[in-house]
């Protein structure tokens, strides 16, 4: 795509026709080299084994340069930027997103700050349906127990306060098969229909955050349709660039994913897909000049702010197309590598993975040695900080509380799991450093209770 500083054309309000597809990029004859990848991410701290791409993502230097160009363009002449350039540039990014997620129409795609904002947009609409009497008090909203914390709180803030009954789907972990999730989800829907209630909304993660598991989202959406659930919202914060995303095939009413986690955008940008039949009553929670002109326009103009992260999606597409197979090739290789590294760690520590290979993405849950004695959430934070400060390893830790019925074997005694990520900049030495750090703690009989609080 042309640099914003080189493109002097004014395309009017829309810039390009909404039904046109962006031009296809030619296949890369010479794929990006390891040296070029290292150069693109040379701004990363070289002293840290960064195996936590899942939390904050990563952005290559070429995209950061494009973002800087947009920022300078705004500062150079803000009036011209807002009135002549912003709308066409946002539309161009929306068109690129539409193509990546296989949506039918660009009008189904809005750009927002993050998946939490998208959740607020959908849940606000559900809240209004309760307060305006279109939904009956006590009707149910179903969500996964492992839903992201901010989204769970948003459901309670918007839905419970408006009179909705919230039901959580309790999922096992470690998990053995998709069938376990399907079974528990059906039970939750049945519970939601008791006493004549209706299930008005199902909130389904595509990939849960902690613990990280790929959810059989197509199966659950299909079940919702069969069971008469009014609306389905898929929170797919980790999905785009991590697993295949085809919103038509998935079939949900609403679908959101962050682009700064696994799609190489700078923070922060996400998209909200809403089927045309469901988008008429959606509004951005920040009411601004474009209120009432559709959720895409409302989201594209919410006052004076830095829009640059939302304008570089075409440059991100250019970046991923430097890799063999584009974004599909990237996510396939990331999945293969994270599974290799997960199995290497499991072999070293004599533990287990938290989910089968087909339920992992570019992230995997790896059991930590039980002798570390992780007994609470506080222990996970102490261990994480210790790994960061003493060993230069950045990785999140999940606490899995012991359950009644656990067998007295090594797997059932594991109470801590590390969520490892693999992105294009990672090398095998990152995971070896993590392995060796844990082995050193084990050999010195250092448990979490011996680690400092800060």
From TrEMBL:
Listed Basic and acidic residues bias regions: 7-23
Ranges for domain Aminotransferase class V: 92-285
Pfam families (UniProt xref): Aminotran_5
Protein keywords: Pyridoxal phosphate
Lineage: superkingdom: Eukaryota
Region annotation Disordered: where it falls in the sequence: 1-28
Protein name: Aminotransferase class V domain-containing protein
Species assigned in the record: Acorus gramineus (Dwarf sweet flag)
């Amino acid at each position: 795509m042309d640099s914003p500083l080189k493109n002097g054309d004014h395309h009017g309000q829309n810039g390009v026709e909404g039904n046109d597809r962006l031009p296809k990029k030619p296949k890369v004859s010479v794929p990006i080299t390891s040296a070029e990848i290292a150069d693109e991410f040379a701004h990363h701290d070289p002293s840290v084994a960064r195996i936590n791409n899942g939390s904050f993502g990563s952005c290559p230097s070429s995209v950061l340069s494009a973002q800087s160009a947009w920022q300078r363009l705004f500062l150079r002449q803000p009036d011209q930027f807002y009135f002549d350039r912003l709308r066409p540039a946002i539309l161009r990014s929306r068109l690129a997103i539409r193509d990546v997620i296989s949506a039918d129409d660009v009008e189904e795609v809005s750009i927002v700050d993050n998946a939490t904002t998208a959740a607020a947009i959908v849940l606000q609409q559900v809240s209004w349906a309760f307060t305006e009497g279109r939904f009956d008090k006590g009707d149910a909203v179903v969500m996964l127990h492992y839903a992201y914390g901010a989204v769970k709180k948003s459901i309670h803030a918007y839905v419970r306060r408006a009179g909705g009954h919230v039901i959580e789907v309790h999922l096992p972990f470690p998990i053995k098969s998709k069938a376990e999730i399907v079974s528990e989800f059906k039970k939750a829907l049945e519970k939601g229909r008791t006493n004549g209630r209706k299930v008005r909304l199902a909130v389904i993660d595509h990939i849960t955050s902690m613990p990280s598991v790929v959810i059989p989202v197509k199966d659950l959406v299909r079940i919702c349709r069969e069971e008469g659930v009014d609306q389905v919202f898929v929170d797919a914060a980790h999905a785009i660039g991590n697993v295949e995303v085809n919103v038509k095939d998935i079939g949900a009413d609403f679908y959101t994913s962050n682009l700064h986690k696994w799609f190489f955008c700078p923070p922060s940008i996400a998209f909200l897909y809403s089927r045309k039949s469901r988008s008429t009553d959606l509004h951005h929670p920040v009411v601004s000049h474009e209120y009432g002109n559709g959720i895409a326009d409302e989201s594209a103009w919410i006052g004076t702010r830095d829009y640059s992260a939302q304008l570089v999606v075409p440059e991100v597409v250019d970046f991923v197309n430097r890799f063999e197979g584009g974004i599909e090739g990237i996510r396939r290789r990331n999945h293969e590598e994270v599974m290799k590294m997960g199995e290497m760690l499991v072999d070293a520590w004599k533990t287990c993975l938290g989910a089968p290979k087909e339920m992992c993405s570019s992230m995997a849950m790896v059991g930590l040695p039980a002798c570390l004695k992780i007994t609470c959430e506080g222990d996970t934070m102490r261990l994480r900080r210790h790994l960061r400060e003493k060993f230069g390893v950045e990785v999140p830790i999940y606490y899995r509380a012991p359950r009644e019925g656990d067998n007295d074997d090594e797997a059932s005694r594991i109470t801590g799991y590390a969520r490892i990520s693999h992105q294009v900049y990672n090398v095998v030495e990152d995971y070896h450093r993590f392995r060796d750090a844990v082995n050193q703690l084990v050999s010195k009989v250092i448990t979490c209770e011996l680690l400092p609080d800060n």
